[in-house]
Design brief:
This protein is mainly α and 372 residues long. The protein has three domains: 2-94, Transcription Regulator spoIIAA; 104-146; 150-370, no CATH class. The protein contains 13 helices and five strands. It has helices at residues 15-30, 33-36, 55-70, 82-94, 108-145, 152-162, 167-189, 198-236, 239-245, 250-289, 293-303, 306-332, 338-370, and strands at 2-5, 8-10, 42-46, 50-53, 74-76. The strands form two sheets. The protein has a three-stranded parallel β-sheet with strand order 1-3-5, covered by helices on one side. It has a two-stranded parallel ribbon with strand order 2-4. Helix 3 packs across helix 4 (82-94). The relative contact order is 0.10.
Length: 372
């Protein structure tokens, strides 16, 4: 059995030295081969000599606890003081949002060590998010056999909020992007006497990539952040805890209506963005190059096939699911303070946009491999 005796003050004033000792403990024994390969599998925490413990010390204790769990130890903590156990439980609950970074050395070794910890942090976050996706998917499949439990009124409300009310800003942005694309393309193609190909440039880029990508990024900032803020505020007000007390599943009540609503509205918004982008490009081509609208759309009909339009539309439901899942996931992780709501709302927008761009790149690779 591995016995660990915690003594002295585990407070913020001693956090740096405690971090160093925990790192040394992991290097010297906790990760040793004799412990991993058939050695002791039980760990005993002795805190009878522990004097003072604050939040920083409790977070370090959580870190030690998780190190032991990751190494496969079953942990025995006999008769801890009540205030120590309460603070430990609180810190363990906050561990989702608070990360204690280890002390690193300066120079190349410190940079490599910090990069390793960042990699572990992102892998841990990816594992948790993947688990949330699995939970939502399982609940959605079960809802297919129990459609009466689906919150259709809530879904229609979110369709109005994420779709209908987003039409003006999506249309204006797409219209301006189409004009910019036509102007920039015209200024370059005029040098080669190939002004007519500005129609091909606008049609393919807007229908295949820019329409759906810009719409998804805009909705990630507008609706994804709203999902996180709404659910996070409910978490702060303990409405979700009350919901669970009443036997209601937050995934069914909060997540699925938002996800399905966004998956239905984003393709429509993308179609609207495509139309407005083409209209903006046609007006600028008419003004800058003298290409009449009739000639523009006649050339567009020859340059663009239905497959080009479908490539953009197919991406929309996937992007919508990613935005809704990230927004709801971060909202459910909010703790009982306003600062957590703001931090996780910002994080949800960044993560949504990042995932949208990553999946857009993956779609491009897949379509290129398939010859689409």
């Amino acid at each position: 059995m591995l016995r660990l005796s915690l003594t002295g003050d585990w407070t913020l004033a001693h956090a740096a030295s405690l971090l160093g000792r925990l790192g040394g403990l992991a290097t010297a024994g906790l990760t040793g081969g004799h412990l991993r390969d058939g050695g002791a599998r039980e760990a005993r925490l002795d805190t009878t000599s522990l004097n003072r413990l604050d939040t920083a010390g409790a977070l370090l204790l959580v870190r030690l606890y998780r190190q032991l769990e990751d190494q496969g130890f079953s942990i025995d903590w006999p008769t801890p003081r009540h205030e120590h156990r309460s603070l430990f439980d609180y810190a363990r609950g906050c561990g989702e949002a608070v990360t204690v970074w280890p002390a690193t050395d300066s120079g190349v070794a410190g940079a490599v060590q910090h990069l390793g910890w960042l990699t572990m942090f992102f892998l841990r976050e990816a594992r948790r998010f993947t688990g949330f996706i699995g939970e939502v998917t399982e609940t959605a499949v079960m809802m297919a056999f129990r459609p009466r439990q689906m919150r259709f009124t809530s879904m229609v409300h979110h369709m109005e909020e994420t779709g209908l009310k987003a039409l003006p800003i999506v249309g204006l942005l797409s219209f301006l992007i189409g004009m910019v694309m036509a102007y920039q393309g015209a200024s370059q193609l005029q040098k080669f006497g190939a002004e007519i190909f500005v129609v091909d440039l606008i049609g393919i880029s807007v229908l295949r990539e820019l329409g759906v990508l810009l719409t998804a990024i805009l909705i990630a900032g507008r609706s994804g952040s709203a999902f996180t803020a709404q659910i996070g505020t409910m978490k702060v007000n303990e409405e979700i805890a009350a919901m669970r007390t009443l036997g209601l599943d937050p995934v069914v009540v909060l997540v699925l209506p938002r996800m399905f609503a966004l998956m239905l509205t984003l393709p429509v918004l993308t179609f609207f963005a495509d139309i407005m982008g083409l209209v903006g490009g046609a007006l600028m081509a008419w003004n800058a190059l003298g290409i009449s609208p009739d000639l523009f759309f006649h050339r567009l009909h020859d340059a663009v096939v239905l497959r080009t339009f479908l490539v953009g539309i197919v991406k929309a439901p996937v992007f919508a699911a990613l935005i809704a899942l990230v927004g709801c996931y971060e909202g459910l992780r909010v703790k009982r303070d306003a600062e957590s709501v703001g931090r996780l709302t910002t994080r949800s927008v960044v993560q949504s946009i990042f995932l949208v761009i990553v999946f857009d790149a993956l779609f491009s690779i897949m379509f290129n491999f398939l010859g689409v």
